Amino acid sequence: MMKLLYSYFKLFLFFSIFLFIMGLKFMNKNYSMMIEYEVLTLNSSSMMMVILLDWMSLLFMSFVLFISSMVIYYSAEYMAEEKNLIRFILLVILFVLSMMLLIISPNMISILLGWDGLGLVSYCLVIYYQNMKSYNAGMLTALSNRIGDVAILMAIAWMMNFGSWNYIYYLEMMKGDSIMEMISYLIVLAAMTKSAQIPFSSWLPAAMAAPTPVSSLVHSSTLVTAGVYLLIRFNFSLTDNLLYLLLFVASMTMFMSGLAANFEYDLKKIIALSTLSQLGLMMSILALGSYKLTFFHLLVHALFKALLFMCAGNIIHNMMNCQDIRYMGNLMEKMPMTCTFFNICNLSLCGLPFLSGFFSKDLIVEFMSMNYLNIYIYIIMYISIGLTVSYSFRLSYYSLIGDFNFLSLNVVSELSMIMLKGMGGLILFVIFSGSLLEWVMFFEPIFICLPMVMKLMALIMIIMGMFIGYEVAKFKLGYSLKSLKFMTFSLFSSLMWNMPLISTLGVNYYPLFLGKVYTKIFDQGWHEYYGGKNLKLLAKFSQVSQSFSRSHLKIYFLLLILWVVFLLLNI
Amino acid sequence: MMKFLITLLFLIPLCFCYNYWLMVNCFFILSFMFMMNYSFNNLYLNVSYLFGNDLLGYIFILLSFWICALMLLASEKIYKIDNYYYLFNLMVLLLMMSLFLVFSSMNLFIFYVFFEVSLIPTLILIMGWGYQPERIEAGIYLLFYTLLVSLPMMISIFYMYNCMGTMMLMFMNYQFNLLMYFCMNLVFFVKMPMFFIHLWLPKAHVEAPISGSMILAGVMLKLGGYGLFRLMSLFILVGLKINFIIVTISLVGGFFVSLICVYQSDMKSLVAYSSVAHMGMVLAGIMTLNIWGFWGSLVMMLAHGLCSSGLFCLVNIVYERIHSRSLYLNKGLLNMMPSLSFWWFMLCSSNMAAPPSLNLMGEIILLNSLVSYSSLSMILLMFLSFFSAVYSLYLFSYSQHGLYYSGMYSVYQGVFREYLLLLLHWLPLNFMIIKSELWVLWI
Amino acid sequence: MFKFYKILFLNILFFSTLIVISSYSWLSMWMGLEINLLSILPLMANPKNLYPSEAAMKYFITQTLASLILLFSILLSMNMKEFLPQNSSNMLILIINSSLFLKAGAAPFHAWFPEVIEGLNWENCLLMMTWQKIAPMMILIHNLNMFFYLSWIILISSILSGIYGLNQTSLRKILAYSSINHIAWMLSSMLNFKLIWLLYFNIYVILVFNLIMIFKYFNIYYMNQLNLIFNSNKLLNFLFMANFLSLGGLPPFLGFLPKWLTIMNLTSNQFYSLTLILIISTLITLFFYIRLTFSSFLLMKVESIFKSKIIGNFWFFSFNFISLAGLLTYAMIPNFF
């Protein structure tokens, strides 16, 4: 089994490097390649399996493969005690495979292969552990994603009007067309479900029920970025109104999740919420009009978020599967390497200058500042950046320094070499990939011209966030409970604006209730009444008419005679 | 045509021979032999007397051969406990013969006769080898729901004959009125089944033995679709006026039934209701009267035949171990039969039209058809598609996930036969999409 | 004990029916009917059992009444018109037809029929349900010109037989009501094309003969006796069920053939609603046939130790086979020419 695992690791690593080189080459030559396999032609509209290889897909694939190879390597130790390791590995491989299929297909139908595959395999991975929580989380994940699938199916139905499902050909040509608008609304809906934008956000923290390597894979580069990637592909067709809508939703998501992460105590959930906030960031910059920046941030974010999760996994593994950050503390002493990685990732996430996150994030906010938009976007963007820093620092303060709060009998140590190796493979890229990618992707620099304050605003927000995070981390329940004054506010914020409640209890009651009603009213009600069951009336009728034939021969003969007489009278 | 019929006829003595597996083999050999008969166009081939097949009939015959072979494979228990397996073999054989004749007849009346004939072996299968006493009610429902509308159809067939002077399907060229529309098609609506008159189906499915459920879901429901395919050309004018009612009923009904599915606690009944929902979509596709609808309906029917038959097999495999179909007792099966859980997942996901199953192909084509028929149907289709995922996942996760039933003292792992059975359901379902042109050439 | 007089009367019975069928004048027809009646009464009688005698009495009164009315109407017509024209006064035909329906036991005049059948043993039931129908029906064939009246008789027969039969537990009564239902079918089959009546009647005889043979062999008279009786022999079980399905007119069996022909004939003569009602009410009879065969359908695992000798009875099975596979054979034969 371990052999299988390592061979997959090697395979993925090889392909990752190969694809990276190919991606650079394709980018350099501005070259792209399409391979079509025709499945079916109906009424001259052909359903095809299409493979599109351009620098974007190649680069993305290479990153996904790199991260997943590291994650697979990492899980050799993390999942070592797992009984069904082979199932786990195969699910992860399937997951990566569906992501590949999603990345390379510019066709609405063939993208379903990856899209649905991601949803289903992620479902299997989320319910991998057999407990009620993961069960619920899996259902929530799968069904939220299914909304996106349905939206894509509907988009396919609308796309039939173009005679082909290769959307990539029609994006710019048909922009502004009512059908294309319909399609793009549906696609945005799909992307919003996959990338957990606001009405559908609740599944993302819930999906933390999956094993940590999976979370690392799901929330960094694969599942959640699928929506963003789809929108990157689709961004040429999105109309202004749709973009405003998307911008609003994405910025709200970003703000909401940043706020919620500040209230959260579950290690993995904090990171998940931070993913959510970064997704919001990507979506909003996409809505602001720069798909390239989105892609840039997507890749960079994938790297540091994967490593962040892997570090978290290592910590959780050492803490005997305890995820609550209140039990952690002073881990710096026990596991210095992991904590170093953790810190680097966190700082990169915050956008500390010259770590990889800085390049993308700074560019994004400055691009935003250069745009002429409203004050709302400006404020919420910067506040969200501040919030990111705030929760990152809070997390660091809680877990890395301070007092050790776990059981007195513990073996928190850093002897897990395999995991560390897996993590170590990523750390260099976390540091350097930002600058590397910026040099590679942006041949001509983006022209930024801002006043001093606005230019430094990002840094100011980061410093403010650091301070707030530090302050928040010091909160203790033993303090004079002034927080009770804000209890409703903090409950509201920490519950992601009640979204998990709404998207579980809020929506599962009515279908079940209606199911009951329909069963009672239709299938066991009117259908039986006008169907089979009411034929007992016939039996009743039969019983009643039976009484006519009780000692009746006299009457019978009498009636007969009467009938004959009646006939005779008429002759 | 005759060669297969005669082969089937001469298989009858083999039913009474004590080798059960020989029969299974014969069916498989027959189905592979029949595959050689594939025709690449919509013309009638292999004509002898009143029988012959075009691609449409061919597809259904192939499906019924396949399902019948799998039925025998699935019902090993009947052989094991010696539950009149020779009679069972005979029934399956008779069923196969009648289905063969239904799908290959070129004459409407012969079609009708064998349509009725196929009811009786099914009835005997349900009443004879079912499990609960409720199977009597189920059998009665099955028989009388169909007969109540199929006998009036007989009148309308003769009326048709008087109007057209022929009953050969290929020479039919006439437009009938509304009354004829209902007299003729109601039987197919019942068979499909359309919402409102689907009541026989959950009952029959739940009470039937595995073979009965398989053939019901696999082929018998498709008889309705097949009949509509053949006859809708006679009702184009009236169909254009009132088909929207049927489309609405089947889509709304599909939505309702999907919700009913979520409410079920009996696995078999869940699968049965899910086939009502799927067939509702198929019916709606046929009723749009556009070419996409016909294509999609056929593909969907084919896919549904394999997929829901496979799901019934799964339910039965579990039932043979736990002796219950209740979702409250069948929990945590993943812990007991992990490999079977894989098949559960594959077939459940196929049921919710996940790629690369043929269900997805059918659903896409049907969506195209229905949305181009009316964009308002989008709303219902969205619900339908979404809830198909809900109940499929519900079935999967409720049975596979969680703590297994503590009252269960012993359970045995799956055997090769069962995995083969599931593989043979799944393989055509997922691999036919690669050359799915084969299923759309018929029109 | 071998009763020669029974053979004698049986022969006379057959003979008298032949007289009716082949007679040239109304009087000899009537005479044939009377001989028929008088010859069946000794066949019914059984000194050790009260019920056949009662049945015979009822039968006698009814048939006498019918014959009387027939004779009366014949004489009346002779007095009025000196012959019985095909399109004479409707009322006269009505009377004649009524008397014949009474003899045959068609529905509004059916009330004697289940009562009589209930008292008889199976052989006599067979006679009553088959042979005794020939004479009145043949006369009816020659006197059909009131389609409206006939349609009503058909409708009432089919509906009433369905509804009355639903409540019975006695097999003889169920067969009696089924017979009434089949009379409705036979009447409708003779509406346009007499040959179909012949076919229908023949097939009906075969079916009823099969069933009664089984009942007779196992000495079954009531529904509750059916439960385990066939468990000794699954093939017999199967044949029993198939015969009832055949009687109900389901396709692969022979019983479908006459119904098919009748429906086809009726629809080609635009009797749509009549056919529809006939078919739907036959469904009700089919329901109680199937109710009888539940025990056969269920394939219960309880095997009886009692092995019946009927297993080896060649004639039994060949006869059943003919009756069940007849449709296919019938359909196949023309193909060979």
From TrEMBL, chain A:
<feature type="transmembrane region" description="Helical">
    <location>
        <begin position="242"/>
        <end position="263"/>
    </location>
</feature>
<keyword id="KW-0999">Mitochondrion inner membrane</keyword>
<feature type="transmembrane region" description="Helical">
    <location>
        <begin position="47"/>
        <end position="73"/>
    </location>
</feature>
<dbReference type="InterPro" id="IPR001750">
    <property type="entry name" value="ND/Mrp_TM"/>
</dbReference>
<keyword id="KW-1133">Transmembrane helix</keyword>
<feature type="transmembrane region" description="Helical">
    <location>
        <begin position="85"/>
        <end position="104"/>
    </location>
</feature>
<comment type="function">
    <text>Core subunit of the mitochondrial membrane respiratory chain NADH dehydrogenase (Complex I) that is believed to belong to the minimal assembly required for catalysis. Complex I functions in the transfer of electrons from NADH to the respiratory chain. The immediate electron acceptor for the enzyme is believed to be ubiquinone.</text>
</comment>
<dbReference type="InterPro" id="IPR001516">
    <property type="entry name" value="Proton_antipo_N"/>
</dbReference>
<feature type="domain" description="NADH-Ubiquinone oxidoreductase (complex I) chain 5 N-terminal">
    <location>
        <begin position="42"/>
        <end position="88"/>
    </location>
</feature>
<keyword id="KW-0830">Ubiquinone</keyword>
<feature type="transmembrane region" description="Helical">
    <location>
        <begin position="150"/>
        <end position="170"/>
    </location>
</feature>
<feature type="domain" description="NADH:quinone oxidoreductase/Mrp antiporter transmembrane">
    <location>
        <begin position="105"/>
        <end position="385"/>
    </location>
</feature>
<dbReference type="GO" id="GO:0003954">
    <property type="term" value="F:NADH dehydrogenase activity"/>
</dbReference>
<dbReference type="GO" id="GO:0008137">
    <property type="term" value="F:NADH dehydrogenase (ubiquinone) activity"/>
</dbReference>
<keyword id="KW-0496">Mitochondrion</keyword>
TrEMBL record, chain B:
<comment type="function">
    <text>Core subunit of the mitochondrial membrane respiratory chain NADH dehydrogenase (Complex I) which catalyzes electron transfer from NADH through the respiratory chain, using ubiquinone as an electron acceptor. Essential for the catalytic activity and assembly of complex I.</text>
</comment>
<feature type="transmembrane region" description="Helical">
    <location>
        <begin position="179"/>
        <end position="201"/>
    </location>
</feature>
<feature type="domain" description="NADH:ubiquinone oxidoreductase chain 4 N-terminal">
    <location>
        <begin position="1"/>
        <end position="101"/>
    </location>
</feature>
<feature type="transmembrane region" description="Helical">
    <location>
        <begin position="85"/>
        <end position="103"/>
    </location>
</feature>
<feature type="transmembrane region" description="Helical">
    <location>
        <begin position="7"/>
        <end position="35"/>
    </location>
</feature>
<dbReference type="InterPro" id="IPR000260">
    <property type="entry name" value="NADH4_N"/>
</dbReference>
<feature type="transmembrane region" description="Helical">
    <location>
        <begin position="55"/>
        <end position="73"/>
    </location>
</feature>
<feature type="transmembrane region" description="Helical">
    <location>
        <begin position="378"/>
        <end position="398"/>
    </location>
</feature>
<protein>
    <recommendedName>
        <fullName>NADH-ubiquinone oxidoreductase chain 4</fullName>
        <ecNumber>7.1.1.2</ecNumber>
    </recommendedName>
</protein>
<keyword id="KW-0813">Transport</keyword>
<dbReference type="GO" id="GO:0031966">
    <property type="term" value="C:mitochondrial membrane"/>
</dbReference>
<keyword id="KW-0496">Mitochondrion</keyword>
<keyword id="KW-0520">NAD</keyword>
<keyword id="KW-0679">Respiratory chain</keyword>
<dbReference type="GO" id="GO:0015990">
    <property type="term" value="P:electron transport coupled proton transport"/>
</dbReference>
From TrEMBL, chain C:
<keyword id="KW-1278">Translocase</keyword>
<feature type="transmembrane region" description="Helical">
    <location>
        <begin position="7"/>
        <end position="27"/>
    </location>
</feature>
<feature type="transmembrane region" description="Helical">
    <location>
        <begin position="270"/>
        <end position="290"/>
    </location>
</feature>
<feature type="transmembrane region" description="Helical">
    <location>
        <begin position="197"/>
        <end position="215"/>
    </location>
</feature>
<keyword id="KW-0520">NAD</keyword>
<feature type="transmembrane region" description="Helical">
    <location>
        <begin position="235"/>
        <end position="258"/>
    </location>
</feature>
<dbReference type="InterPro" id="IPR001750">
    <property type="entry name" value="ND/Mrp_TM"/>
</dbReference>
<dbReference type="InterPro" id="IPR050175">
    <property type="entry name" value="Complex_I_Subunit_2"/>
</dbReference>
<feature type="domain" description="NADH:quinone oxidoreductase/Mrp antiporter transmembrane">
    <location>
        <begin position="23"/>
        <end position="285"/>
    </location>
</feature>
<dbReference type="GO" id="GO:0006120">
    <property type="term" value="P:mitochondrial electron transport, NADH to ubiquinone"/>
</dbReference>
<keyword id="KW-0830">Ubiquinone</keyword>
<keyword id="KW-0472">Membrane</keyword>
<dbReference type="GO" id="GO:0008137">
    <property type="term" value="F:NADH dehydrogenase (ubiquinone) activity"/>
</dbReference>
<keyword id="KW-0679">Respiratory chain</keyword>
<comment type="function">
    <text>Core subunit of the mitochondrial membrane respiratory chain NADH dehydrogenase (Complex I) which catalyzes electron transfer from NADH through the respiratory chain, using ubiquinone as an electron acceptor. Essential for the catalytic activity and assembly of complex I.</text>
</comment>
